[in-house]
Hints:
This protein has 165 residues and is mainly alpha-helical.
Amino acid sequence: MDIIPMLLKEMEQEAQTTRKMLERIPNDKLDWQPHVKSMTIRRLATHIAELPSWVSMTILTDHLDFAASPYIPSPVSNSADLLALLEKSLAEARTELEKTNEEELLKDWTLRNGDQVYSVSPKIDIIRMAYCQTVHHRAQLGVFLRLLDVPIPGSYGPSADDAEF
């Protein structure tokens, strides 16, 4: 099987679970955080919704320099905004994945902050890292929601909140 169809399939599978998580966020809890060192739900969920954009960014560029391009989260006011942001990020990622080729995915991509280089990796590794980051941060969001007594959807099978479990 070719790499690109596998990446597209995995992106869509993870998107299904991500949608279920984002839609459960109570709109009145967006600024809640479980600890002073934790992100707010708004910040965490916005990051999750934007993570698919790393796929298109990685394909279209050869680096990201945080010093030259500081992160500015997209503004969101409710779970519908989060879902719309996710769908926009996914559509852009899907478009670029469908247009690229495996040779492009093997080119190096650099993550840096000015003179400090964090990593130089093939683009395919950066795309996989974005997928892993989605799963990681989605799990964080699950803990946040659990602490708010919001039922958690299953990710790779049922959760303790699913009726059939």
